[in-house]
Amino acid sequence: MVQDHSQANRRLNRLAWQKGLSLPTDMDFSHRIALGNLRHRRGESFDRAYMRQMVDDHQSTLAMFRTYARNGADPDLRAWAQQTLPALEHHRSMAR
């Protein structure tokens, strides 16, 4: 999963640079809250919370990617979203 995400991020960074776009450098608020929640857990409690977060994150990410892959304004970013979808679907399946 780390390899897939790293590869997708490298491609996205390259596209953003080519298009003069800047990408976020920090987590959004909801992910900072989720990280804080995980920091205080151990053992099975951590495992359950982490996996629940992974399923939820992949569900919402898939929804965004599917929408952009169909309707995105930028053809290069739309193609990137389309190429990334299969790995995201696989990751969601693994998390489930």
Explain this structure to me?
This protein is an all-alpha fold and about 100 residues long. The protein contains 4 helices and no strands. Helix 1 runs antiparallel to helix 4, helix 2 packs antiparallel against helix 3 and helix 3 runs antiparallel to helix 4. The longest helix is centred in the middle third of the chain and has 29 residues. It is globular and about 45 Å long. The model has no long low-confidence stretch (mean pLDDT about 90).
Write the layout of secondary structure elements.
Layout: H1 2-19, H2 29-39, H3 43-71, H4 75-95
Helix pairs in contact: 1-4, 2-3, 3-4
What characterizes the major β-sheet?
none
Mean pLDDT, rounded to whole units? 92
State the helix count: 4
Number of strands: 0
Q: What structural class is derived from the secondary structure elements?
A: mainly alpha
- What's the Cα radius of gyration? 15 Å
Write the element-wise H/E pattern from the N-terminal end onward: HHHH
User: Can you give the helix content as a percent range?
Assistant: over 70%
